[in-house]
Amino acid sequence: MLRRHFLTLVSAVTIAAVIPLAATAATPEDQLVIATNMSSMRGLDPHELNQLEAAEVVANLYERLIVLPADKINEPQPGLAESWTISPDGKTFTFKIRAGVTFHSGNALTAKDVEWSLRRLVKLGLAPSTDLRQWGFSADNVDSLIRATDAQTVEIETPEVWNADLILLSLASFSTSILDSAFLADKDKDGDLGREFLQTADAGSGPYSLKTWRANELLIAEAFADYSQGAPAMRRVILRHLPESSAQRLQIEAGDVDVATRLSSTDLAALEASGGVQIQKTPGFGFYYLALNQKDEILSNPKVREAFRYLIDYDGLANTVMKYYGIKQQSIIPAALPGALGENPYKLDVEKAKQLLAEAGYPDGFSKVYYATPVTPEFEVAQSLQANAAKAGIKLDLQAGDHIGKFRERAFEIFSARSGERLPDPHAVLASYATNANNTDEAKLTGLLAWRTAWDVPKDLQDMVLAAAHETDRTKRNALYAKINKAYLTSSPPLVTSFQRTDAKAVRNDVNGYIGHSTWLTRWDTVTKGD
After folding, report:
1. What are the CA-CA distances from residue 406 to residues 317, 318, 411 (Å)?
2. pLDDT at 494 over 50
3. Bridge-based pairing state of the strands 528-529 and 14-15
4. How far apart are CA 82 and CA 111, in angstroms?
5. Sequence-distant (≥ 6) Cβ neighbours of residue 182 within 8 angstroms
6. DSSP-assigned beta bridge partners for residue 417
7. What is the C-alpha separation between 520 and 61, in angstroms, rounded?
8. Among the residues of 34-174, which ranges form H helices?
9. Do 38-233 and 282-503 agree at the fold level?
10. Mean pLDDT over all residues of the chain?
11. Count of alpha carbons within 13 angstroms of residue 241, beta-carbon side
């Protein structure tokens, strides 16, 4: 049932109407051209990046031990590891590495490359290292806990017993990509383990190798003829930097690009109506959220927090600006994951919000500064909230701009944005939204939304999140997540979720096999062209 549910979501594409696009130029039959925004693509080291567009590139330059098919997101499949076993105590995972895999350099991929790569991820300690560090791996212990026992065998030992699925799913993340250790041996610069080199080069074994990358202009990847799973049908994949939505729309209508990303709702609607394309809406494991700083005396009042729940126009937004970018959801576990609820008990109710504000001691409302990102759909959502809040007596000074730094420093009053967890398990979201082991400023747990919001999360809620991550019995774990989900919903949290994130793309109808992936691992080697 879970898999069918998610497959329905993943395949929830809106097929365009019957009027075809005008017959114009078309991209070559053996090339895939993707229009994207490269502004945030700062490098291609898989152990450093943490951004959707770059992750898609890395997903095709490198391979990982585990594969998560887009239509079976909860079922780890063999990748570089052809098989694996788990020790009786649940702590040691033994992987048999597939024979006959070669890197783009021509070097054979062995267990030593796996050992070196995963150790490198942990030792660099950059943002993606959380995928392993959260399970107890550190620079001090990783050399003893991740070890190649022979040319085709790797053992990964966790310091504690965790639910095995969490470990396997983490090893499918782009962050755990396997690198060519022999090729990178002479690329080290001042102990950076090849980090500078890999900003603009690749050392992978994936279906494509990096040919050209000119920042904020163009990226070209060439098919790897010796790819272990067979050469891809698309001989070349080209990413073009087109930051403007209107420019992407014109290019895909003209046939100059095959895929358009980061389009505005207006342009998506126009393309949907014009025909010749399909609009893919891929569910992600994150939310559009409203953060209320708990250092603020007014915003820390539970009744004030609850009042904001009634100032969001869920249905109105769902039918307009969020049509392509989100699925209405007020609970904290993403749809199709264990413990997900089908409940959305809140609706826009200004009178109810006024009542709660009066009970909190603020019958005349109050004024706060509201930081929001000036992009679609975040800004439109913020404007809607501002208008509804005014009706309840709350004056929000809406300031558009890049305020994420202030949010990370807890130097804000109200902030809204969207999150983008990659691990297809409830723990990924709950760890960020519902755990905060140290709420002091000095702790600087900036990776956690709860810490950024200065929320001293109730201990019983945090204990349940940790217990679920350790629980090895699937039935018990699922029941615990359902309990956590309801507890979060009824706690009037300062992190108010309204829509589960979806990532929308326009794909021309003659492009087959380009399937958006919820963990940012969209593949190019599955693509063919033809009506």
Report:
1. 27, 29, 5
2. yes
3. unpaired
4. 12
5. 105, 107, 113
6. 289
7. 14
8. 52-61, 111-124, 130-133, 142-145, 164-170
9. no
10. 92
11. 12
Q: Does domain 38-233 have CATH number 3.30.70.1400?
A: no
* Cβ atoms of 135 and 204 closer than 8 Å: no
pLDDT digits (tens, 9 = 90+) for 263-279: 988 899 999 998 889 99
**And the tokens for 162?**
């965790």
CA pair distance 475, 8, nearest whole angstrom: 23
The amino acid at residue 231 is A
DSSP state of 421: B
Pick one of 3.10.105.10, 3.40.190.10, 3.30.420.270, 3.20.20.140 as the CATH number of 282-503. 3.10.105.10
Residue carrying the six token digits 């391979």:
63
Structure token digits, residue 429: 């979201």
Tokens of 88: 């009786």
d(CA 363, CA 356): 9
- Residue 323 three-state SS: coil
Domain boundaries, the chain: 38-233, 282-503
For residue 458, cis peptide bond before it (omega within 30 degrees of 0): no
Residue 283: which H helix or E strand, with range? strand 277-292
Q: Check: CB of residue 34 under 8 Å from CB of residue 237.
A: yes
Half-sphere exposure of 195 toward its Cβ, with a 13 Å CA cutoff? 15
- Residues 445 and 432: their CA atoms lie apart, in Å, by 10
pLDDT class for 100, splitting at 50, 70, 90? very high
For tokens 């267990």, what's the residue?
Answer: 111
- What is the model's pTM? 0.87
- Residue 297 corresponds to which amino acid? E
pLDDT tens, position by position, 211-246: 999 999 999 999 999 999 999 999 999 999 999 999
CA 122 to chain CA mean position, Å: 20
Burial class (CB in 10 A: 0-12, 13-18, 19+), 49: buried
